[in-house]
Amino acid sequence: MRWRSSTTLSLFLTSFFALSWIVLLLSFYFQSLELFLITIVLLLLTFFTRLYLKKAGEHVELVNNRRTIKLFKGEQETLSFTLNNTGNVPIWNGQLHFSLEPILHVSNVDLVQNTKNLQFYSIPYYLGRKEGKTISFPIYADKRGVTRIRKVELLIKDLFGWGRQLSILESLFQTEILIYPELLEVKGVERLSTFEMGSHSYEHSLYENLSSPAGSREYESSDPFNRIHWKATARTSELKTKVYERSIDLRWIFVLDLSVKRKNSPGQVSKDIETYISQLAFLCELATKRGVSFELHINLDPEGPSPCMTLEAGEGNAQLSNALELLARIDETRPLLSFERMSAWLRKRITDRSVVIRLGEPIQESKEAAFYHLLERKGHKCYEVKMSGDDAYLSHLERKKES
Q1: Is 95 or 239 the better-scoring residue by pLDDT?
Q2: pTM score, two decimals?
């Protein structure tokens, strides 16, 4: 770790040290033994104060292991700092300073300054010779976001308060705190259990093509008798069940549009951004529970190779964890993508027959509605999340009529 250290003496010692030679000369001139002794004592006090602060500061280490704390809003976790004194000089009056963004509530720690973007905390500590100590305190997740511990400082004072050494951590502190969004229920999602084939509906889809066997797996008690793979059973002496290729890909494609849909607010992020993110988090959890593969596309510039924030298709708990982390990391200060760039990206990505679910403010422009109508004509199912009072519900995305 890289530290930038500075030592400061009290105003009295600093002023005296600057005038010490004059005082010494005066003591000789007036032949004053008392003035001479006082001067020597104060010079020694200045010297040993500097020496103590230097030696104490050189041997204090702050453990900086990589760690990510993941929380949902309202959850509690313990945040810790580990300090080691590798020297022979005890630290009687030390203070650890750090700051966090105000997405957390910190307990049992002194809050010394509170600004709009950062909260500054101070923790006193004592370290004996060759001693290590872990300082722990509870933190509570207040709102969605990501924060790191910033502005880490170690302040050491001498026993009598004559001086202080401040060491500022210049390298990045590796502990990261990630707060997932809330899950806001979207009603009407039962319609996603039905996939239309021609003029008929099939509950929970036709997942398998019975003419395309893909192999076998271990038999389970819930498997029907006619699914037993007799050849594989005879070959292995264990009951096996037939496995078929999937005939329909039920991939869900979530499109999160965070832009304001008003002509007098171009390029601005909607004030309801947290609501839309929480609705999407709910739908991601729903897809995971149903075993459905899903992917995310968000019209924010990620400052990387991809034109928008994207999570590649996947399924299961690992995919849900990745989705919630991506949503937690959404930074509304990033530039928004225009509809033209976003639609061009989606045309490349939405190829296989899929269910497209749009979230955000209601569509206002006919060209955006026409884009989703085009997807419908290509065989995709398009839905949008609408608001009715405080409730959100899933609705089939209808083509906007020309006025």
Answers
A1: 95
A2: 0.75
